């Protein structure tokens, strides 16, 4: 059975993943395929496990610490007013985090406030939400630079 996240990690290792931002000790930072929420980022765990509690304790603690640093960098890079962070794994059963920079009114016209999932999936993950290659390259560079700054300040 193939794993979509493992396939994406292989693309990073083969240098064919245009969304790749940076490798950390426990995971890989990538820009999300869809940018309805501008700056949406995914943090992919290097270990193929379906649940966080399956990770060895020291690795798990480091992974959570790194996820928090990625969240900080995403918030700064994309000027978030609020951050939403989720680890679901219902579609792709491999530990990975969705980091959504939020802005006032970003759910309009669907709701005034609430979770990102109140935007219809066909809108949030529709072709209109896919960044151009130029925009993607700009986002990757912006986040890479900001993440480096956050990591250096640690």
TrEMBL record:
Q: Which InterPro entries match?
A: HIT-like, HIT-like_sf
Q: Give the molecular function GO annotations.
A: catalytic activity
- Which intervals hold domain HIT? 7-109
Which PROSITE patterns does the record match to this protein? HIT_2
Specify the domain of life of the species encoding this protein: Bacteria
Q: Per the Swiss-Prot or TrEMBL record, what residue ranges does the short sequence motif Histidine triad motif cover?
A: 94-98
Q: What is this protein called?
A: HIT family protein
What organism is listed for this UniProt entry? Lactococcus allomyrinae
